Amino acid sequence: MISKTRDTAPDVIRGFALLGILIVNIQYMAFAAEGLTSKWVTGVANAATAFMISTFFSGKFYLLFSLMYGYSASYIVKGDKKNVKRWLNRCFFFIIFGFLHAVFLWQGDILFWYGLFGLLLTFFFFRSDKALKRWNVGLFSLTNLALILIVLALVITQALGTNNVSEVKIEPLDSIMRSGTFIEAIHARFDLWRQSASSAIILQAGTAFSAFLLGIRLARKRYFSSSFDRPKNRRLLRIGLIVGLPIEIGAGLIFVSNLQSVAGSENIKTAATILYFVVAPLLTYVYVQGLLKLIEIRPQLVMWMAPAGRMSLTTYIGQSVIAYLIFGPWGLGLFQKLQLWQVELMAIGIWLFQLQAARVWLSKFTQGPLEMLLGKVTNRKANRASGL
Fold it and tell me: pLDDT band for position 162 (50/70/90)?
């Protein structure tokens, strides 16, 4: 018999995903717009933290969030073409709001891209399950094949002795985050967001959209509300742990050791990054199944994450606001002044604070503040299953 708490699974998964997203994003917010360099992985504690981030978090949680975005999309449209207008309004809201978020707070914003590719998703809402599966598998396979070819090209280039030493790029945004003003950061953040758009699309767009499609398929099957196909789940879990985990560990070791090397290579860094993005779905699946199993047998261990998942848009934006009040010179001014392990502990603290804040807020209101705004824009109150 399925637990009555099982319907809250999307909220729990989104709440958990928000932790992983913050753990990955905060390193860019606290240290450098271009990400970690050798300076920030010195010492055992920092190196171990960088390894944990790259192995267990990078590439996994944006995918998890994307899966839930597609799942929520199906609940919003509900197989009725009359609801497409509401979905389009929602997409335009994300495009505008995401752009403002990227320029004013966090250049790594995902809302803009969710809104943009959400428009494309409109053409798939009323396709058959068979057609969705073909697109899902085909797009995922082609994207990962392309990424693997890029890895091979980088490895070959490295073997030929090209681009052996990585160059530390000095970003205008970094100097502004040390001693500039909030207004000065807007222009620098916009330039960086615009310049990094192509790499973001190459690394994430294909797999994210494939996760959107998978989310729609799972929603049609009421995957989070029905019993498990246990033999199949166990088989996929074994694949994730036996195949995915060792590759992720290897990629993480390569990534960190390359950063620590005096002859660190930008090619190797990029190849390792792409590799753990390619394998990420295997660990993402392990996370999903692990959460669903706990919801079924020990709900008290994970249900406390649900409030943040119910107001995931507010929580996601709140992470950027809190981080830049901590690290920006217009706040506490801690940019590049802490160790990596300290910053990641801070990320966990921020997430726990947000969970408590969400619980208190939802004890008085049915939605988060930004969810209320989104509901007004789409001219209909969002239900619990239709989060970010």
Answer: low
* Secondary-structure breakdown of the chain: helix, strand, coil percentages, each rounded to the nearest 5: 75, 0, 25
Domain boundaries defined on the chain: 4-377
Non-local (6+) Cβ contacts of 149 within 8 A are none
Report the SS3 class of residue 81: helix
Q: Taking a C-beta distance cutoff of 8 angstroms, is the pair 248, 283 a contact?
A: yes
- Cβ proximity of 212 and 121 under 8 Å: yes
277/144 Cα distance (integer angstroms): 9
* Per-residue buried b or exposed e for 193-221, using 16+ beta carbons within 10 Å of the residue's own CB: beeeeeebeebbebbbbbbbbbbbbbbee
Residue 21 near residue 287, CB atoms below 8 Å: no
pLDDT digits over 125-153, tens only?
Answer: 999 999 999 999 999 888 888 888 887 88
